[in-house]
Amino acid sequence: NLHAKLASECALVTWVGLVIRETRQISQAEPGFTITARIRTLRAETEDEFKISHTDLQELARSSDDGRWLARLQSTAGRYALLADRRWRTYIDSGEEAILRMIENNTVIAQCNITRLPKLADGKQLTLEGMQADIEKSLGEGFDSFLESSEKLTSSKLRLLRAVVAGQSEDVPIQWIYTHLSDDQGRRVSMVFTMGSNFAERFAASDEQMTASFELLPDASDGSSEPTTAPKLSAQQSPPAKTAKR
Fold it and tell me: What pTM, to 2 d.p., does this model score?
């Protein structure tokens, strides 16, 4: 449904009401769903004029802008936001845990599990050595070695612990990137990236962009509580062997 009227130079659509019903099958990027979306758009003519020429658009397309290829992913339930390569898609977001997948030509390049962790007591912080010990215990026989480990402060003033791990799952070589982000109020988030070692080059250190831009949004005003039990920093929440075979 739409409403239109005669504007100063042409016909102007002032109101549009649209209902879209869609059913999608399960895919690498989405879990499958049936949805009814109702969209309403209101428009009005103003005296302000904004004109841009075809030449201006071409010049804009030629200009270098790295941010053009990034998407802002925000979790209302999880209360965080980040900038990521446009190949990343949110697969599941339950608030306490989210699964993102990097999809290229319907192939899963990598998976990222984001988990909200319970707050630590005042004055306490997870150390890099403590995180590495948890990783070794979590992976068990699948652990081979640590390739990199670092600790730094992000631009949003979050403390970042990062460890790159080589290992295997069901005899398939796997690379994990474990990251732990925390602020001065004790809020914490873990991000675990999983990929087959043959996809490491196509992954291109995408985790660094995501963690560098990661923001913890203000807690919900309704007093929603933090998780009461700390989930393990484990990559076994996803089937990395299948991901590597695709």
Answer: 0.70
